[in-house]
Amino acid sequence: MARGLEVEGFNLKQRHGKARVRVARVWKGKDGCDSMVEWNVSISLLSKCINAYLDGDNSDIVATDTMKNTVYAKAKECSEQLSVEDFAVLLAKHFVSFYRQVTGAIINIVEKPWERLHVAGQPHEHGFKLGSEKHTTEVILHENGALMITSGVQGLALLKTTKSGFEGFIRDKYTALPDTRERMLATEVTGTWRYWYPSAFKLPENPLYFTERYLDVKKVLMDTFFGHPKVGVYSPSVQSTLYDMAKAVLSSFSDISSVELKMPNIHFLPVNLSNRDKNTIVKFKDDVYLPTDEPHGSIEASLSRIPSRM
Ligand SMILES: O=c1[nH]c(=O)c2[nH]c(=O)[nH]c2[nH]1
Fold first, then answer.
1. All structural domains of the chain
2. Which of 1, 171, 241, 255 has the highest Cβ tally under 10 A?
């Protein structure tokens, strides 16, 4: 949050906004092929409305109801399909430029993963089905034009049945886990990456640039996690795989300056069963597992470029 303001001997920091404004936008294509998006928008404004807090004077308040209406009005104005990032920038620009009271806007949007349906191998002109992982963005714009665009993916569930191990870790009197070079590896990636676009006036012109980037980043993350389709790639730990994935994103995209990945280690436990007489019912041979949700390992890291000292 921005620096606070000294009032009556206290430091006051404040912001206000509207959370979870849901909007869907359909674009009717000239060729009869419709496009659509569904967005869940949260707006937070940094504004000079101190008298609302101190004196009950609301004359400097942008009503959160107005913020909600603005989402629908701006969605209507977008006559061409655009990325969720571009829509967030458009909203932020509006709030910062339209109200003299507003010094900054923080826009968060989660896009619902509606995907075009294919029937008999053909893309359907107006049919969509819900996919799994979600595209997210956060745009922060200040009145001086300083811009920060962060994009992300939420709920990208990945699993491989082999080419994963974990060995050589610290052993002490509480350690029960055996070393292994053969296990399942499952995770649900939450990733965010920050773009290097310092001003809202120097963005790529293609209105779907960030949508394409999102798909490209996801592909690089997954290709690195899985490796070649026939050979795979051995993972000595979630930590090592996470690092390789983050590094691959920074190496592939020069306009991304940092990446943060959260990769829970979702355990699939080997099943071994025996009866009361210690006779084996099921002996684990890398085949039968007990899938679990909790507890899970929690592994997260961020990787950013080091600014050159030139
Ligand atoms: O990839 C892993 N990293 C860990 O830190 C860890 N800890 C653990 O019990 N299993 C694993 N696996």
1. 11-145 (3.10.270.10), 154-196+204-310 (3.10.270.10)
2. 241
